[in-house]
Amino acid sequence: MAVLASPRTASDRRSTTTAPPVSRRRRSLPGRIAVNAVLLAVSLMYVLPLLWMLLASVSDTNSFRLTWPSALTLDNFDAILNVDTTYRPLLNSLLLCGFATAVTVVVSVLAAYPLSRYRSRLRRPFLYTILFSTGLPITAVMIPVYSMFVQVNLIDSMPGTTLFLAASALPFGIWLMKSFMDSVPIVLEEAARIDGANTLQVLWRVILPLMRSGVTVVTIFTFIGMWGNFFVPFILLLSPEKLPASVSVFTFLSAHDQTQYGQLSAFSILYSLPVVMLYLLLSRRLGGGFALGGALKG
User: Fold this and answer.
1) Most buried by CB count within 10 Å: which residue of 20, 99, 122, 137?
2) Residue 63's pLDDT is what?
3) How many CA atoms, within 13 angstroms, populate the side-chain half-sphere of residue 159?
4) Crossing angle between the packed helical segments 212-227 and 88-117, to the nearest 10 degrees
């Protein structure tokens, strides 16, 4: 007579199928500890300079060492909050980077649309040229650019420097904008054309609303890259009243151990605020992704 085995309960089956071996958990623990230790060391490399900048800005001693200040003071901020040191350089940076970023984003959208939607024999070579231009160092072209600016009388010109900053950021902007535009389904554009929309209406009312996150990413990356650009305005701008904050920070440095570290740290904090504010204002657009969830229904 056959003996029937008692069926296992659901909890028994769950325990036998989902419980990982003890040895595997023991083996993974040292690996996780090592990874966390490496990540912690890398984080400290970024946190320590920021901590030094915050402490030095409110310290009453002019020291390069990372030490807790004996007394907290705002004298360093009071020393730099004037027109010549902070206000005018920051305004120049906002004008240069703001207009250059706007030009870059607009031209990138107009250039990425035909590259994303139309096919041509010159499309692939043009894309390879753009890709090569993204890796071209700006220092390699500054000598011929400086010579050209001298010949066309654009040296020490804010509009000329703005246009060159926009031109230098265009390869990266076009390449990134095309990648985002490729994610927008072409059937939406075809439906809009059936309804009588022209090319600019399709681009403005259909494609751009669906790739707002992509435009935001290009805007943030372009503005940050221009905001920290020291070499271009240092070469093309000569008048002290036209220099941006990325160049005027050089005036705090000295080769004879007379660098004002407290004022330099205070200026660096104020110099970082526009980029942080821009990211906070536009970061809400980054979390939503592309609004294509129900675009193809019906």
Assistant:
1) 99
2) 75
3) 3
4) 140
Which residues lie closer than 8 Å to 259 by C-beta, 6 or more apart? 62, 252, 253
- Measured from the Cβ of residue 97, the count of other Cβ atoms closer than 10 Å reads 29
Residues 197-256 have pLDDT tens digits of: 888 888 888 899 888 888 988 999 999 999 999 999 999 999 999 999 999 888 777 645
* Burial class, 166, CB count within 10 angstroms (exposed 0-12 / middle 13-18 / buried 19+): buried
**Residue whose token pair is 């246009």:** 163
pLDDT > 70: percent of the chain:
85
Helices (H), 88-211: 88-117, 123-134, 142-151, 158-181, 186-194, 199-202, 208-210
Q: Average of pLDDT values for 83-94?
A: 93
Q: Which residues contact residue 288 at a Cβ distance below 8 angstroms, ignoring those fewer than 6 apart?
A: 213
Average pLDDT of the chain, as a whole number: 82
User: Helix axis angle, 158-181 relative to 142-151, nearest 10°?
Assistant: 130
pLDDT in tens, 110-167: 999 988 888 888 888 888 888 887 777 888 888 899 999 999 999 999 999 999 999 9
**Cα 140 to Cα 275: distance, rounded to the nearest angstrom:** 27
DSSP-assigned states of every residue in 71-83: SB--HHHHHH-SI
Q: In this structure, what token pair is assigned to residue 85?
A: 């040191």
With beta carbons less than 8 A apart as the criterion, state whether 104 and 227 touch.
no
Q: Count Cβ atoms below 10 Å from residue 54 Cβ, excluding itself.
A: 14
pLDDT at 24 over 70: no
Token output for 184: 């927008």
- Residue matched to tokens 């030009």: 103
Contact 263, 252 (CB under 8 A): yes
Q: What are phi and psi of 216, to 5 degrees?
A: -65, -45
